[in-house]
Amino acid sequence: MSAESLFDANPALDCCGGLNNVDYSQMDMSVLEELWRLIDLTEPRFCVAVIAIIFNPFFWNVVARWEHRTRGLTRLFGGPYVACYALAVLILLLNVYRSHSITVAMKAHPRWELLENAHMFYTGAALMALGSVFVISSFMALGVTGTFLGDYFGILMDQKVTGFPFNVIENPMYWGSTANYLGLALMNASPVGVILTAVVYLSYKVAVAYEGPFTEEIYRRRSQRCKHK
User: What pathway is this protein a component of (predicted)?
Assistant: First the structure.
């Protein structure tokens, strides 16, 4: 029996007649409608949070590349270590403000009943715990200069860090921070918090795309210089 005759004899094999027979008008859109009602994308505090999220990685990448090209901060502060520490303090302050702006935006919008249950709360708590482990262990493995763009100041590490958490996930500082924000959003049943976490994720994806190749090029040049000595 041919495949064609088999399907003719068994029309049930063509489940639902393909997607062409699905009546999309019967789909329950109430959840999406409720979610859209809870979120105001033009609300000033939400907009401030989005700007803070996007600005931070943009700022430190622009400043670090400028420093690598001109050594402007090194000259200003009298040495690469002091300059790197100064930038680290500024980045930390910006990140504190980012977290504050996200919290304010979440409080300015209503909670979502769909997220208000024990399962979501404990999932959020677990994400925050996991994210904190990644952030803290990453900082301990890299140190201040390794965490805060010391490579751009000419402060290079002797070798690539391959231990925990870098043997589990790449860029654990970024993704740990993202997990923290998602956990905070779930614990507060905040749909706005979830959306802002997505913005954090996207901003870090862009940052990694720029930082990764540039940092690799810094170490490649050092390797070439060492070979020529």
Answer: Phospholipid metabolism; phosphatidylcholine biosynthesis; Lipid metabolism
Q: How far apart are CA 36 and CA 41, in angstroms?
A: 9
Instruction: Convert the pLDDT of each residue in 137-178 to its tens digit.
Output: 999 999 999 999 999 999 998 888 888 999 999 999 999 999
Query: 58 Cβ partners below 8 Å, 6+ apart?
Result: 203
Annotation: binding site: 129-131, 211-212
Q: pTM, whole model, 2 decimals?
A: 0.82
Q: Closest by alpha carbon to 120, among 194, 50, 178?
A: 194
Q: Please give the annotated binding residues for S-adenosyl-L-methionine, written as ranges.
A: 129-131, 211-212
CA distances from 97 to 55, 134, 138 (A): 11, 21, 22
For residues 128-133, average pLDDT: 98
Domain boundaries in the chain?
A: 42-228
